[in-house]
Design a protein that fits this description.
Strand 4 and strand 5 form a beta hairpin. It is built from 19 helices and 17 strands. The radius of gyration is 26 Å and the shape is globular. The chain has a six-stranded mixed sheet. A five-stranded parallel sheet has the order 2-1-3-6-7, with helices on both faces. The chain starts with a strand and ends in a 5-residue tail after the last helix. It is α/β, with parallel strands linked by helices.
């Protein structure tokens, strides 16, 4: 099958018609009339692309995109709307939609878009698995001189020569795979396979097959034996990125690998023996997941022999100039623009930005700037608008803060310093008033 499609629309006639059109292309189609029913199907089945109406009885498709991408980041969503408008379209793309099209006007685009979305899903799943044998990664390749990153590197260096399992903690984009690579390269397992897999990229069934492999005949379409990644990583290192997304069933199987060095392939009756070091990573709070019954406590303690916290980029902003120079050198050479540098104003803007996507987001911003720049300097206008407008926001915030401070002072003067009455006049809690007085250095 070219791919598995989920069609969500409350108009049954239109849903059936679209289902037939898509099915004639060879796609496997599931249907749902509400967002809730659609999400239930996503939880039960492997879905590549969701084709979803914007206005549904139980919610808005634009918001639904964000919810789906949070749990199934590799599933693509194409939104259909009867009345397209630019703000909805912009928000849909921001939330992670593959495309946003108008019913009737864009019908001819649906099938080509489905093929494009399927191609993207396949490429992302392929890149979610990496098998490396003799590439060397040194801790010197990790850029930064802040105390936080130096502490993380020092601990990673200390545990690299051991066979202890490692748990890398931190937000998305903080460089967990680079750390895992460097730990492997500086271990006694260097020279053997380093296998990396992003657990969030696969459904439970697909992930089980990728990790543990199967025997021929284990299920329909399994025509020959397949080695799983755990077996391929024998004598080497297995890096499980986003390990918090493993289902409870797979957690039990992974625990058996760690404790006994064995597992059973799908469709097999005998065990397979392995010797593998596990490095796991997550941006989730695993302790909270344990409390919610979503993660096994015994597996957590087996993975958490050594935990390394990787700092968010906004907590080590002093490292940003070095990272910027590194990315400018790389992308500048690639685009035949050597010698690029960021001017002082651009660097200030980059250092003030929050970087929700961390180093990965910074890398993408510098790649974009490298393409836009004509001279030798990256200027503020080469940066995304949300980074440029920080100066405007700062000025606005300072003005508002100044007005608020004066207003609080006037109310306190009116109440003759009675803070309880002042808080009532201001319509805020007494603790909030005390906090604002401290923030604005109001002492009388």
């Amino acid at each position: 099958m070219p791919g598995k499609i989920l069609l969500i629309d409350d108009e049954e006639g239109l849903r059936r018609l679209l289902g037939r059109i898509i099915g004639l292309e060879g796609f496997h189609v599931d249907e749902a009339g509400t967002l809730r029913a659609g999400f239930d199907l996503l939880n039960k089945k492997e879905i590549d692309v969701v084709l979803c109406d914007v206005k549904l009885p139980d919610g808005n498709g634009v918001d639904f995109v964000k919810e789906v991408k949070l749990k199934y980041p590799l599933t693509e969503i194409i939104l259909l709307t009867a009345y397209g408008n630019i703000p909805d379209g912009v928000q849909a793309i921001k939330n992670g939609a593959f495309d946003y099209i108008t019913k009737g006007n864009d019908n001819d685009r649906i099938v080509p878009l489905l093929y494009q979305a399927i191609d993207k899903v396949a490429a992302q799943r392929k890149s979610a698995i990496k098998i490396k044998n003799k590439e060397t990664y040194n801790f010197d390749d990790i850029i930064g001189h802040s105390s936080l990153i130096k502490e993380a590197i020092a601990l990673a260096k200390k545990i690299s020569p051991t066979d202890a399992n490692v748990l890398l903690l931190g937000e998305t984009g903080t460089g967990k795979e680079i750390f895992a690579n460097a730990i492997h390269s500086n271990s006694k397992r260097f020279g053997q396979s380093f296998i990396a897999i992003n657990c969030s990229a696969f459904t439970k069934e697909l992930l089980e097959g990728e990790l543990f492999g199967h025997k021929a005949g284990a299920y329909t379409g399994a025509t020959k034996d397949k080695k799983g990644l755990i077996e391929i990583a024998h004598q080497g290192t297995l890096f499980l990125d986003e390990v918090g997304e493993l289902s409870i069933d797979l957690q039990a199987k992974l625990l058996r690998v760690i404790e006994n060095g064995e597992f059973i392939k799908l469709g097999d009756e005998k065990t397979t023996k392995v010797n593998v070091r596990i490095i796991a990573a997550t941006n989730r709070d695993l302790v909270k997941r344990i409390e919610e019954g979503e993660f096994r406590e015994d597996l957590y303690y087996r993975l958490n022999v050594f935990a390394i916290q990787l700092p968010a980029l906004h907590d080590r902003s002093e490292d940003i100039p070095a990272l910027v120079n590194n990315f400018l050198s790389y992308f500048g050479n690639r685009e035949n623009k050597p010698g690029l540098r960021a001017n002082d104003e651009s660097l200030k803007l980059l250092q003030r930005y929050r970087w929700k996507g961390n180093v990965r987001e910074l890398r993408n911003v510098i790649e974009r700037a490298t393409i836009l720049v004509d001279g030798k300097e990256v200027l503020p206008e080469h940066l995304p608008y949300e980074i440029q407008r920080q100066n405007e926001q700062t000025a606005t915030n300072l003005t508002l803060a100044s007005v608020e401070k004066i207003h609080i002072q006037k109310v306190l003067h009116y109440t003759k310093g009675n803070k309880t009455k002042a808080a009532e006049h201001l319509g805020i809690g007494l603790t909030t008033l005390y906090r604002k007085m401290e923030e604005y250095h109001i002492t009388k």
